[in-house]
Design brief:
The complex is a heterodimer of chains A (439) and B (207). With 439 residues, chain A is an alpha+beta fold. Chain A contains 7 helices and 22 strands. Helices cover 22% and strands 26% of the residues of chain A. In chain A, strands 1, 2, 3, 4, 5 and 6 form a 6-stranded mixed beta sheet that branches. In chain A, α2 packs across α3 (145-159). In chain B, α1 packs across α2. The chains are: A alpha+beta (439), B alpha+beta (207). At the A-B interface, β3, β6, β15 and α7 of A face β1, β2, β3, β5 and α4 of B. β15 of chain A pairs antiparallel with β1 of chain B, so a sheet runs across the interface.
């Protein structure tokens, strides 16, 4: 679906409000929207909500052979998908620019910053390493996808547990989660992206732009930082020209925000671990508040299937017996049999080729919808017959076989060269009608 | 069969629904009736599109086949003739899979269609049955039960007469077992429809 365009008056309104340091949702310029993190029942599954922007993250792992030039390192793979439910404009073929930009930024933030220890993912050097795959799905787009996605990715990675492996000499044993508790990934630091939107050629800036604000912004600055105040990635897009003190100011703001967000993440991870250890209920179903009017829950209910057997037997007894699968074949002549009535042959004459009917005995695969099963060519049946293809090196396109007493039978030859030559014919060649009249 | 459901607020002109069945959860969103591409336009009814996204990896053939099954079920109940030359898109995102996935997707799709106000001639629900090695019938199996079962059957039933809208099966089973599973699924569908009714009553109790 096409994206609804932003009207001029809305654009003007937003810009005027920003000039007066007012935001549509009442936030201050440096305020983030509320962040909610919830975990699923599987390890490595989480949903992050930044205001109304929601991202689902899932981490999975697999044992593969390592890359040739990095024989002792594991492989990391990131994939962010903009689901069509995020915005009506996100159609499967249409969002390549934004998608590539987001994916690339995410990769730089997480892979190049070496936040995950890839050496620890190696099982047997040169042969088997863990491939960690992070799949992020954008469920709703209300601005600032990159922040939400980076939080979801790092939370999912911290939450994930991979199966335990032990190597004894040449033997590698992979333990299932029941045999040995799965092991967390080794993560050095948690890089988190913070986005700054600029308006009026860099005069005004807003942290965590919402979707409307993103539409009217001039440029975007994304700084990925960890809680040790190390910048992992910096990206400025949109063609705005920033002064160095602006960038420094943004990085200071980012440092403060990242510290808050990291604390929130740690608390959420600890809570989830506590609940799992104590054996309480965990998962998305639990995180949705029960008292909300839009949530409804029904407990396990046994289904009464006592009369199921009798019902089933009744139905079978009353049902008509299955029709005969194969009707009796009708024998026309030795070698030609017919099963069923058959439908009209709706294949018209094709331009250059002729349809060839299957020659062969009646032991061919019989199509149950009834097909006239015919045999070799020398049994003439009603209607014109097509001759078999003769593969030959002959340069002649149309080879006409002249037989006394019979009309000329055309033999189709497949020529290898592209030359077109008509064979000399003794009888005048009847121009074949292109379309067979329907019989 | 524990059935729980949560719904999320209206977003982006579409309606969202998160449907949980045990640990299997599916998020469904419906867009439409909306503009349709000329190539996909049908002159006398609405074009239904189903998009199913798995949690891990890119969508493959299994997702395509499930999309088709869900689409066929929806086409049988949605009154497309009321909205010709439009498109109704159902987007399903798998949040977690712990067995009976197709049935969960069907239920989520139905509730999302109802919540979006798409006209339908009946509601539908999905029920999965598993037949294990000694012939015991298990309704709404978990992933482990599905893996060890001899046959897994999924049915889509309509709400008016519990007639069969769609069925897909995997494995070996006899004619009698098929009829038994169908009868059991019809009994189970009553519970699902009761859930639909109660949750909608709750939803619209304060309007």
């Amino acid at each position: 679906m096409k994206e609804t365009p932003l009207s001029n008056c809305e654009r003007r309104f937003l810009l005027r409000a920003i000039e007066e340091k007012k935001r549509l949702d009442g936030r201050q310029t440096y305020d983030y929207r509320s962040i909610k993190i919830s975990f699923g029942t599987d390890y490595g599954c989480c949903i992050v909500e930044l205001g109304k922007t929601r991202v689902l993250g899932q981490v999975s792992c697999e044992l593969v052979s390592p890359k040739l030039n990095r024989a002792t390192e594991g492989i990391l793979f990131f994939n962010l998908e903009l689901s069509q439910m995020a915005a009506p404009a996100f159609e499967p073929g249409r969002q390549s620019d934004l998608l590539v930009k987001l994916n690339r930024l995410l990769e730089r933030c997480l892979r190049n910053s070496k936040c995950i220890d890839t050496e620890s993912l190696c099982v047997v050097a040169g042969e088997k390493v863990w491939q960690i795959r992070v799949d992020l799905h954008l469920l709703n787009h209300d601005g600032n996808i990159i922040d939400a996605a980076s939080i979801a990715a790092i939370v999912a990675l911290c939450h994930f547990r991979r199966p335990d492996v032990s190597v004894q000499g040449d033997e590698v044993t992979l333990y299932t989660p029941e045999e040995r508790a799965p092991v967390p990934l080794s993560i050095h630091h948690m890089p988190i992206c913070v986005s700054f939107a600029f308006f009026q050629q860099g005069t005004f800036l807003l942290v965590d732009p919402s979707e409307r604000e993103e539409r009217v912004m001039d440029g975007l600055l994304v700084i990925a930082m960890n809680k040790h105040r190390e910048i992992c990635t910096l990206q400025s897009s949109g063609g705005i020209m920033l002064l160095n003190e602006q960038v420094l100011r943004c990085s200071k703001i980012a440092g403060v925000k990242v510290a808050e967000i990291t604390e929130l993440i740690q608390k959420a991870l600890e809570n989830d671990e506590k609940v799992r250890k104590e054996g309480g209920k965990f998962g998305f179903a639990e995180s949705i508040a029960n008292h909300r009017i839009t949530a409804f829950r029904m407990e396990k209910a046994p289904v009464d299937t006592s009369d199921v057997e009798e019902k089933a037997e009744e139905i079978i007894a009353e049902a008509a017996p299955p029709p005969e699968v194969v009707s009796n074949p009708v024998l026309w002549t030795p070698g030609t049999a017919q099963i069923g009535e058959g439908i009209e042959n709706s294949w018209g004459d094709l331009e250059d080729s002729e349809k060839e009917e299957e020659g062969g005995g009646s032991d061919e695969a019989i199509v149950l919808d009834s097909v006239r099963v015919a045999t070799d060519v020398d049994v003439p049946s009603a209607g014109s017959r097509d001759a078999p293809i003769v593969l030959s090196d002959s340069e002649e396109e149309d080879m006409i076989i002249l037989e006394p007493g019979k009309s000329p039978r055309k033999v189709r030859t497949q020529t290898i060269s592209a030359k077109q030559e008509k064979a000399p014919s003794k009888k005048p060649v009847k121009k074949r009608k292109k379309k067979r009249p329907a019989n | 069969m524990m059935v729980a459901q949560g719904r999320v607020e209206v977003m982006k002109a579409g309606k969202f629904l998160m449907y949980f069945e045990g640990d299997t959860s599916v998020l469904a969103g419906v867009y439409g009736p909306a503009e349709v591409k000329v190539s996909k336009e049908i002159f006398n009814k609405a074009t239904l599109e189903v998009i199913l996204r798995p949690k891990i990896g890119l969508p493959g053939v299994a997702e395509k086949s499930r999309e088709r099954l869900i689409r066929n079920t929806c086409e049988a109940v949605v009154l497309g003739a009321l909205h010709p030359r439009t498109s109704i898109t159902i987007v399903l995102q798998i949040i977690s899979d712990a067995g009976s996935l197709l049935a969960c997707c069907l239920n989520a799709a139905c509730m999302a269609l109802v919540d979006a106000g798409v006209p339908m001639r009946a509601l539908f629900c999905g029920v999965t049955c598993a037949l294990d090695a000694d012939g015991t019938l298990v309704l709404d199996p978990t992933a482990k039960q599905e893996k060890e079962a001899r046959a897994v059957l999924t049915f889509a039933l309509d709400s008016v007469d519990q007639k069969l809208l769609m069925s897909t099966t995997k494995g070996l089973f006899s004619n009698a077992e098929l009829q038994q599973c169908l009868a059991a699924a019809q009994a189970a569908s009553q519970h699902v429809f009761r859930f639909y009714r109660e949750s909608l009553q709750r939803r619209y109790s304060k309007s």
